[in-house]
Amino acid sequence: MAPMANLQGGLSEADNPNSLIVRFPESDPLITDAGVDISPFAIAYQTYGVLNAAKSNAILICHALTGDQHVANIHPVTEKPGWWSTMVGPGKPIDTDRYFVICSNVVGGCLGTTGPASTNPGTGKPYGLDLPVITIRDMVRAQAKLIDHLGIEQLFCVAGGSMGGMQVLQWAASYPQRVFCAMPIATAARHSSQNIAFHEVGRQAIMADPNWLGGRYFENEVRPTKGLAVARMAAHITYLSDEALHRKFGRKLQDRESPTFSFDADFQIESYLRHQGSSFVERFDANSYLYVTRAMDYFDLAADYDGSLARAFKGSKTRFCIVSFTSDWLFPTSNSRAIVHALNAGGASVSFVEIETDRGHDAFLLDVPELLATSRGFLESAARARGLA
Amino acid sequence: MAPMANLQGGLSEADNPNSLIVRFPESDPLITDAGVDISPFAIAYQTYGVLNAAKSNAILICHALTGDQHVANIHPVTEKPGWWSTMVGPGKPIDTDRYFVICSNVVGGCLGTTGPASTNPGTGKPYGLDLPVITIRDMVRAQAKLIDHLGIEQLFCVAGGSMGGMQVLQWAASYPQRVFCAMPIATAARHSSQNIAFHEVGRQAIMADPNWLGGRYFENEVRPTKGLAVARMAAHITYLSDEALHRKFGRKLQDRESPTFSFDADFQIESYLRHQGSSFVERFDANSYLYVTRAMDYFDLAADYDGSLARAFKGSKTRFCIVSFTSDWLFPTSNSRAIVHALNAGGASVSFVEIETDRGHDAFLLDVPELLATSRGFLESAARARGLA
Fold first, then answer.
1. Closest CA to B142 of B60, B50, B56
2. Which of A96, A116, A119 has its CA nearest to residue A46?
3. Substitution target from B33, B261, B331, B333 for chain A, most A beta carbons within 10 A
4. Three-state SS at A324
5. Statement: residue B7 has pLDDT above 60
6. Residues A84, A159: Cα–Cα separation, whole Å
7. In this model, does residue A226 exceed pLDDT 60?
8. For position A389, what pLDDT does the model report?
9. For residue B135, what is the domain's CATH number?
């Protein structure tokens, strides 16, 4: 594994990512929902495929909480395939032989877009908690500046799952003219109380780590890895389903015949979770985890439209494809249905598919044939309507 | 709140509880499933009501993970009403005017029964992790010694929810002649992979706290309160339901009109969870949390009967009343159905009620009229069969 951490300078990917990067000067500011100007700021992104002459074949992919811009290439830190390699690539549903695919790291992230691990130009030190709290709308505002920079007037599609789906909904609401079609997957128009609760546990785990130091750990050459690992472990359970855990692990023991009567990882599920925790801290910044979870907590799209989600989409010409999964208890189908009802009430064009699977919330990232077929079919139909060959 | 912690000497309730206590000498040992003799050992317990001359009206209540023996009296540490005051008391379904009610602190607990916070007579210091890992069967073995000590041959009823229900099932399997009727509520005959996973997160949170010190915190006059609070917060979410959280908290803000764009507890659910964490650490020992969660993880009743749960109950004369709750996702109804099927296959007498409620796993502790009515009816019928006036 390539070293990501460079303790004196923060995270090496945060300031000098292995990605394309646009640095917006103070003359081109980003004013966040908290009312703070965070310019100058940077957006790191990846692209795949070729933008056509009409600039009409661009697909923006929005990543989830712990995702990043490395959708379909080998990740520079983990050296593993991109997080949506099943969906994006030559001949895949989001076909890079046909579409120009863009994915940028979210504001608040740690892979090159301005976030708490980035160097604050005002102090020469990592921002830490000096960065204002970021919202989903801030993430989308920043993406819109990137799309402007690339000279693209209208995106053919905006797609993403989980927090990525929140961004898709925000795009469709904020910039209806700029989104020909939209695929929000396994997501919600507002974060639930239960989900805020799980996020709060993760944040408390990070802040309870004495190495967190109020967010100033890089300057002290430590990192709150134990707290971040616990946060990841708790969250990871919510990405899976009871059935999938039962099928995959059950009560099977790890490399032993009988329980050890100890606090070792006797059960396979324990060993698996510990691995999830310890590998995550190699690639993710603890402060970013605070910022990005907070952005999700604050997301309540209807609140910006006098409490009416239908109003957020009123008169929209965007074509929507909403997807949920039967065993997803983090973003259950009821959340997707609420979006569908609002789109219908707003008069939008919407398809809705609930996919039967036991793989839980993580299904959106996995090789689920019905998801891939649905995405392919929706995009082909939309491409014909858009006049893409 | 009365001070529970006495840092130099461990927890004051652990060695000198505000409860009745039986101290079993080395001549009357308890050999645990781990093969370790933990004698001399103590059991702390509460009783309510009067044992009749025939000693036939005793009900043993088994408490859950973070419960204790203070079922229906003011708790000596928190000064709050006992944890099952809705169910137990004069005129209540478990009527202390009629029954002699016993509840003992489990082995591994921290309220007076031998546990990791108790003084190890061999060293004069708290056991910490020197106590062997305890199982549900060990808890029940210890309770059986208490029941022997009280001169009771057969319990009229053994009742409990969650981990208490596991003990009820173990009692019925280990000592079928000694249990006239049994009420295992919101429980399972084996702990699921998902539930082991949640427990492991809690344990990792405790062990990640630098004040944990390998379990030797009392001698160092510190306590891993931050880690234990995080463990409690994560667990507490699993005791509630998504619907109940939505109804009770939704996205309501705490004492403010609009979000603060900070990491403060903006949302009521955050404030509530933080309170759950901080109040829990006043009354519970972190090492006990490790031991008692581990006991639940290891519970798999069928494994002791060649993998057949039906065999555990074969020929049982005990009358069973199984209760589950529709919104309990920690111990879902499918777990209760598996118990019912095994009892039926074993030829036992069994009633089963799934109660419609949105209150999640915690419903067993709450004023849920259908639970109280079911319990009352079941006990009245069993009392007639037992010849209790």
1. B60
2. A96
3. B261
4. strand
5. no
6. 11
7. yes
8. 74
9. 3.40.50.1820
Closest partner residue to A132 (CB to CB) among B200, B261, B277 is B261
CB atoms A194 and B277 under 8 Å: no
A328: chain B residues, CB-CB within 8 Å = none
The interface predicted TM-score (ipTM) is: 0.94
Do A358 and A282 sit in the same domain of this protein? no
In this complex, how many residue pairs, one in chain A and one in chain B, have their CB atoms less than 8 Å apart?
A: 150
| Residue A8 confidence (pLDDT) | 41
* Residues B288 and B310 placed together within one structural domain of the fold: no
Taking the C-alpha atoms of residue A316 and residue A342, their distance in angstroms, rounded to an integer, is 11
| Domain stops at, among B228, B259, B292 | B292
Q: What band does B25 get if pLDDT is binned at 50, 70 and 90? A: very high
Identify the CATH number of the domain in which residue B212 sits: 1.10.1740.110
Closest residue of B to A249, CA-based? B193
DSSP B238-269: HHS-HHHHHHHTTT-BSS-SS--SSSS--BHH
**Is A262 in contact with B133 (Cβ distance < 8 A)?**
yes
Residue B320 is predicted with a pLDDT of: 98
Cβ <8 Å between A298 and B194: no
Model pLDDT for residues B117-159, shown as the tens digit of each residue = 999 999 999 999 999 999 999 999 999 999 999 999 999 999 9
d(CA A170, CA A172): 5
Domain extent for B43: 5-190+300-386
The model's pLDDT over B348-381, given as tens digits with 9 standing for 90+, comes to 999 999 999 999 999 999 999 999 999 999 999 9
> Cβ of A229 under 8 Å from any chain B Cβ?
yes
**Of A292, A322, A355, the domain-final residue:** A292
Among B34, B194, B294, the residue with its CB nearest the CB of A245 is: B194
Active site residue B162: yes
- Flag if A237 and B197 touch (Cβ within 8 Å): yes
Judged against a pLDDT cut of 80, whether residue A322 lies above it is answered with yes
Which chain A residues are within 8 Å of B281, Cβ to Cβ?
A: none
Chain B residue with Cα closest to A191 = B251
Split at pLDDT 50, 70, 90, the class of B10 is low
Cβ-contact B296, B195 below 8 angstroms? yes
Q: Which residues contact A229 (CB under 8 A, 6 or more apart)?
A: A274, A277, A278, A280, A281, B204, B208
- Residue B257 clears pLDDT 90, i.e. is over it: no
pLDDT single digits (tens) B213-238: 999 999 999 999 999 999 999 999 99
The verdict on A186 and A334 lying in the same domain is: yes
Residues of A in contact with B234 (CB under 8 A): 198, 201, 234
Helix (H) or strand (E) holding B345, with range, is helix B333-345
Q: How far apart are CA B146 and CA B61, in angstroms?
A: 13
CB contact, 8 Å: A31 with chain B?
no
Nearest CA distance, A61 vs chain B (angstrom): 26
Residue A3 pLDDT: 41
Residues A179 and A245 in one domain: no
| Per-residue pLDDT at A228 exceeds 60 | yes
By the CB < 8 Å criterion, does A201 face chain B? Answer: yes
Q: Within the 282-301 window of chain B, which residues sit less than 8 Å (CB to CB) from chain A?
A: 290, 294, 297-298, 300
Q: Which amino acid is at B342?
A: A
Of A3-7, B283-287, B298-302, the poorest mean pLDDT is in A3-7
- Residues 339-368 on B with a CB inside 8 Å of A are none
